[in-house]
Amino acid sequence: MTTADHNTRRARDLLAMMERIRAFEEQACLAAERDKLVLGAIHPSIGQEAVAAGVMCNFNRDDILLSTHRGHGHTLAKGADPLAMMRELLGREGGCCGGKGGSMHIADFGVGMLGANGVVGANITIAAGAAHGLKLQGSDRIVVDIFGDGAINRGPFLEGVNWASVFDLPILFVCEDNQYSATTKTSSVTGGPGAAARAEALGLRATTVDGNDAEAVADVTAEITARIRAGGGPEMLHAITYRRTGHTSFDPAGYRPEGESEHEAKTNDPITRQRAVLAGMGLSADELDAVHTAAQSEMVQVLADAAATPFPADDMALQDVQDIGSPAQGAY
Amino acid sequence: MVKMTFVEASREALREMMQADETVWCVGEDLGRGSVFGQYLGLQDEFGPDRVADTPISEAAIMGAAFGAAMVGTRPVVEMRFSDFALCATDELVNQIAKARFMFGGQSRAPMVIRKPIGLWRSSAAQHSQSLESWYVHIPGLVVVCPATPQDNYSMMKAAIRCDDPVVYLEHKNIWGMEGEVDTSLDIELGNAAVRRLGADVTLVSWSDTANLCVQAAEKLAGQGVDAEVIDLRSLWPWDKETVIASVRKTGRLVVAHESVAVGGFGAEVVATVVEQAGDALRGPVRRLGAPRSLVAYAPNLEDKMRVTEQMIVTAAKETMGK
Ligand SMILES: Cc1ncc(C[n+]2csc(CCOP(=O)(O)OP(=O)(O)O)c2C)c(N)n1
């Protein structure tokens, strides 16, 4: 395969992954708003797909991922089964957590995805520890931990990043900066220059990238992961993107300047940008549309299949609490 | 049988477990120097700084990172120095470690031992003295143990390290130097109480250092014609209801004593369970002893106001007998 072929293939894979993430979340939002089938809150990453696709294409299935409440994209890009994920959003049997976690607690240990998290910033120390555990075991696997720009204002950011630095751990921290923390513009509550500078102050190499440029994200992450795999220690990637939806699928985001999101959608959509890259490589509009259509039909089917799945058996409420003193054995 | 102090017992158990299982490692502040009470003395020399890891003063990261490392296949022993400081890692313990297995539908395990020295210990005041065992019992997902003798600290440390659940391991700071005979071949299953003294008249239920006080009180009661049975629960979750209920069915009388604040304490759980399941067997009023709902002071006379004493236990036992 020539370099050009390789580049085209990766570019096409990036587009396909972004289209799948977009389609999954569009279906999830429909399931929430139209069908009332999603039971709790979901936090869409529509418009942020280049971070998930571009970062994760540099990680292997047995590498480890920890993510956030806005983690559907990361999880899909790590290789999780969208049907198991959609079932989880709907609280159904066969969901990746048996319907017991929901959107904010999606995990798929089979693909190295050790959990989204409902507590902002909590994944940072845990991810550092996963890298610590791998290092102790002499493993060559590495860890990626993704969190939002709001998370860098929580204490575990300092403790976890410092920890990775002190123990020289094989981990990439990704600050997926969509510029909002719930309903607040993050810059208005963040002292100093932000994620990259804070990581540098703790001894990490930090790279800032246009997080809506899938090619650029994939390129810098490839360089970073090569260094981490070679024993270069932890690094930070600050990927700047934009949260196009409300904080949750139900949030109308009235606190945002009028037209801001629409402008982003029109001028800075990562999927549109990636289509332009592929058009430049010679792919036709029909070929690109086919990628879109395939993703859409996959996820329409996923939602239909998930909706047809039953809820978990009642006794699951007492299962998997603990081995000894378990309520499932009547210890309550 | 080997003579050991309380602190030597858990250290020796840890050492043996580290020798037997390469995935066991310790993580916390100042472990290379043995930590605050010498619980790790010599272990870094023997096992190296990777397996006896000195960390930054980052309780949240110690707890969170140990959890991450547990999820990828290691078995961390986590040192929190004082149970008070463990509160800096409450999210990590309560929201993450205790919940992960359930939330993730059984995919994860957190085989961890979380050591939090508890209890009154010479003028340590409000931020270095408390006992919060009842909080942890309230959190589904956690195992909670409070050994009170060198034998139990030896055997239960081993059991805790072997356990695939997160075990909150509460050693009392006042008894590090307590000596006792240890049978290193003895296995103790977590969740089993010890009957420290057999008796026919009244059941004294306790744990941690207050269980030792109950044994002393029982000796005193014997001299006053009261034959007290002393049950040291050792594990608070799971706890040995069967042993307690069988004892109350025999004696018909119950005193529960613990060092921590009485209000909302685990003693209330014991009393409620006995009343529910053996209320018909009770032949006298139940007594519950614990600290007043106040804070531990620095001045010795004020600190003493927080103590359950041998005399209080003696009096309470006699009251249950109408004496
Ligand atoms: C410790 C904690 N505080 C507050 C919240 C409520 N909350 C959920 S998401 C969120 C905003 C997080 O912002 P950021 O980290 O930038 O991630 P984003 O939602 O933008 O992806 C907040 C405040 C929480 N889940 N956890």
UniProtKB/TrEMBL annotation, chain B:
<dbReference type="InterPro" id="IPR033248">
    <property type="entry name" value="Transketolase_C"/>
</dbReference>
<keyword id="KW-0786">Thiamine pyrophosphate</keyword>
<protein>
    <submittedName>
        <fullName>Alpha-ketoacid dehydrogenase subunit beta</fullName>
    </submittedName>
</protein>
<dbReference type="Pfam" id="PF02780">
    <property type="entry name" value="Transketolase_C"/>
</dbReference>
<dbReference type="InterPro" id="IPR005475">
    <property type="entry name" value="Transketolase-like_Pyr-bd"/>
</dbReference>
<dbReference type="Pfam" id="PF02779">
    <property type="entry name" value="Transket_pyr"/>
</dbReference>
<dbReference type="InterPro" id="IPR009014">
    <property type="entry name" value="Transketo_C/PFOR_II"/>
</dbReference>
<feature type="domain" description="Transketolase-like pyrimidine-binding">
    <location>
        <begin position="4"/>
        <end position="178"/>
    </location>
</feature>
<dbReference type="GO" id="GO:0016491">
    <property type="term" value="F:oxidoreductase activity"/>
</dbReference>
<keyword id="KW-0560">Oxidoreductase</keyword>
<dbReference type="InterPro" id="IPR029061">
    <property type="entry name" value="THDP-binding"/>
</dbReference>
